[in-house]
Amino acid sequence: MEMRERWLQIEAAVEEETKKESIEDGHSPVKGGSEFGPAPEVDKMTPEMALAEAERFEEVIVEAADVSGIVEVSGFKVEPPTIPDVIEIIHGADDRVRVGNTTVYPWRTICHLEIAAPNGKAYIGTGAFIGPRVVLTAGHCVYLHADGGWARKIRVIPGRNGGSSCPSSGTSSVCPYGYADATQYTSVKGWVNNKDSDYDYAVIILPANQKLGNTVGWMGLANLSMGSLLGLNVNSSGYPGDKPYGTQWWNSNNILAVTGRRLYYRIDTMGGQSGSPVWRYKDGQRHIIGIHTTGGSPYNGATRINDDVFNNLVNWKNL
């Protein structure tokens, strides 16, 4: 009975989500910091197209880049941020597993984010490299509506493995690739102007002389059909605030429901894991198919990499 009630809750929530209309130009890029980014992309998803898309079983992918080595970076010291006030959920027993060696691919491509909001508040989040200096994350990690808008600064620490702070220059066992301080971001109108979770995604652009992605690599991107996504076993790894500071934790589960712009699953997450990549592992390849953004009962959820999100990310990944 409990399982039947859970499915009824999921079906009701998905039905309500599907009724929502697209925001006009919702996927059009909005910039924070310096001027960059592609020409606007119009959100082309309609209810009719979503139904037609359910019959599509081909996939569109961008391949990953698995590279090795380390690089020294420099920057200024910041105090460790506080745990973000984002409610997330552990479903049943907490079966998250700590990533012990974060210098191994793909764990080194996943980044701990220390976020300085415009009003002085500090938060933590998660991101993942998708290009040499481009880190994919949640929109609410770069544009904080309740805290004044665009983040004043985000410290990006790939493959972090604990510790209260990184050295001001060079690398360490807890910050094996150093860090980069970013002040340039791109999100979309659906998030920045409308605060709509269907459009909750963004990228962080590292300084031009700190292309850490060329050192740690990045996972690929995939735009999969609804039929391919439903029931798919997926992975997610990030930096939860309820665990020792700066430690990375992984979990895996199946996708329970899909809409045109959202994915739903019971992967265990907590605050700090917003922006974590949700990826498929198949034939030795890893492709990100969603960006973790929300937690709740009976499921947690991600912004789906659909046609519009995929097109934006492909345009942004080589900035």
From TrEMBL:
GO terms for molecular function: serine-type endopeptidase activity. The keyword Protease applies. It comes from the Archaea. The keyword Protease applies. Residues 15-42 are annotated as: Disordered. Keywords: Hydrolase, Protease, Serine protease, Signal. Residues 16-28 have a biased composition (Basic and acidic residues). GO terms for biological process: proteolysis. PROSITE patterns: TRYPSIN_HIS. Belongs to the peptidase S1B family. This is V8-like Glu-specific endopeptidase. It comes from Methanothrix harundinacea (strain 6Ac) (Methanosaeta harundinacea).
